[in-house]
């Protein structure tokens, strides 16, 4: 009996899925706060670090192999390098907690319309949108409604 149960565990492994969508760009310094910095990491290793950190929502890397992690609530805007070129070869990857609804020829199109559920420190969700001028990706946070208790 126990060998059958053991076999079932191998047939149905539990996996945690993280989807990252990479685009060219860089966090806007005035609306961002770096949570962690790592030196000499490849792009793949940088994303792996984000997977390990539960609060990580975005990774940023450049041609110097510096890896920056950003936590939920600590980033609002990311510069959109539409032409795909930046002096430092800057790239970001947004962590999607829900899979994009559609595949696309452009990775940026897979970001929009996805509500990513999250539950910590009164943040309930986040969504990536594009600024009206297409200069920035913007992260909009859903917040829980705090109940006001008054004395009667």
UniProtKB/TrEMBL annotation:
UniProt keyword annotations, A-Z: Signal
Instruction: Give one Pfam family.
Output: PAN_3
Give every PAN-3 domain span.
2-135
| Presence of the UniProt keyword Metal-binding in the record | no
Q: Where is the signal peptide?
A: 1-25
Q: What is this protein called?
A: PAN-3 domain-containing protein
Where is the organism placed in the taxonomic lineage, from the top? Eukaryota, Metazoa, Ecdysozoa, Nematoda, Chromadorea
């Amino acid at each position: 009996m126990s060998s059958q149960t053991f076999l079932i565990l191998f047939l149905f492994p539990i996996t945690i899925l993280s989807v990252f969508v990479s685009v060219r760009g860089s966090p806007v310094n005035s609306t961002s706060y770096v949570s962690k910095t790592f030196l000499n990491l490849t792009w793949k290793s940088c994303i792996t670090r984000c997977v390990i950190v539960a609060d990580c929502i975005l990774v940023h890397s450049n041609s110097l192999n510096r890896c920056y992690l950003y936590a939920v609530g600590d980033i609002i805007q990311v510069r959109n390098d539409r032409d795909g070129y930046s002096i430092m070869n800057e790239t970001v990857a947004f962590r999607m907690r829900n899979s994009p609804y559609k595949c696309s020829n452009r990775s940026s199109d897979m970001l929009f319309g996805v509500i990513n559920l999250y539950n910590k420190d009164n943040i309930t969700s986040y969504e990536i949108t594009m600024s009206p001028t297409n200069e920035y990706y913007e992260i909009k946070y859903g917040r829980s409604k705090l109940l006001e208790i008054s004395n009667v």
